[in-house]
């Protein structure tokens, strides 16, 4: 949509709605059962809700970021780059670390509690109206998932705020994800790993097929460095050919390396239009996510980026939950790594500042049942001198006792003593109470929900 067209159009919800309080909106976001039916979760649910609302997503441009690893950071970097280029950019990510409004940002700021409640109110009303008509026609009412509700809410909030462009992170997969109810002008796929296997499939190729579905005719496509595995690349190439799309394939080269974590380093990435050599003050693995964001932003703008502004945008861009210190004495550090590939990246960053395993903090680990738990344990446990196990409040959480058995088996196979497993705790709060009372420094990793619960206890 051109700038002049945007200036002439102001979005408004096309019908009256009952405004929820923030507390009511949060409760509904956590459990949409009161507005759900029996039709099952469908992409058509979100499409019909957006139609009912007068397509708020058509009042701005949408960019979509799919993938297994790095998609949140890539989306964040892209929104920051576009803001640096003078656009009013919005960002939609998931899940939140602590509070639901964190999923939605405008111009680099989390939306207000009032805006969040209003967006949820509009989405709820749309769902109720659509389902009422279906019921009258003898059809089953839609099953509206929390992610459906929040995606629609975000799009309403962004439209009312008159943003120019919104960067939307795919929640799961791509083919049936709620963000796919929009029509993005450009998409990126950051990388593929074994993730949500009960839903997406048990092989990289199967999972890649679900994520590659965001590639469609007429969209510019960026393929991140995590798509280069042969079986994944084959799927991506086939989808691009079918859609008559020539993708931009991302690469980067480190030009300097940091001496300590937090030092700036320089990298180079070659896009369709330019060669960029910005500095970044993040763990080194974030360079590939920044490179992916650079290509996505450049394709959207259809011109080279201002490199001086680009560097400032990247350095200033926050990445909550990624190598994030939430307490300093004793140290509590969180990372949202949640599959073997992202855990390997995290351990690599840890190697930069604490190369001796014996000198590292205690690992606090939790996992979700639909992840590659054995793979996560294989990467994380050998990287720490001792391990404590817990479980999060997620419905998908692996029981602490079950995870402890996997961790214990890993320790035994490595010839390590049983005492390296220093505790099994029923909740995250209980685990932190015990570990910090013992004066232990802690690194919490293994699932995004663990990072979020720990962050919530210290912020």
Content of β-strand: 15-25%
Poorly predicted regions are: 1-5, 196-200
- Note the overall shape: globular
Class from helix and strand fractions? alpha/beta
Helix proportion = 40-55%
Brief summary of the model shown:
The chain is α/β, with parallel strands linked by helices. The chain has helices spanning 3-8, 22-30, 43-52, 71-84, 113-136, 146-160, 197-200, 204-212, 230-242, 286-301, 307-316, 340-353, 373-380, 400-413, 428-437, 448-458; strands spanning 61-66, 89-92, 104-106, 109-110, 165-169, 186-191, 220-226, 248-249, 253-254, 265-270, 275-276, 279-280, 324-328, 331-334, 362-365, 387-389, 421-424, 442-445.
Describe the overall structure.
It is built from 16 helices and 18 strands. Strand 7 (220-226), helix 9 and strand 8 form a beta-alpha-beta unit. Helices cover 41% and strands 15% of the residues. The longest helix has 24 residues, at 113-136. With 459 residues, it is an alpha/beta fold. The two termini are 40 Å apart. Helix 2 crosses helix 5 (113-136), helix 4 crosses helix 11 (307-316) and helix 13 (373-380) packs across helix 14 (400-413). Residues 1-5 and 196-200 have low confidence and may be disordered.
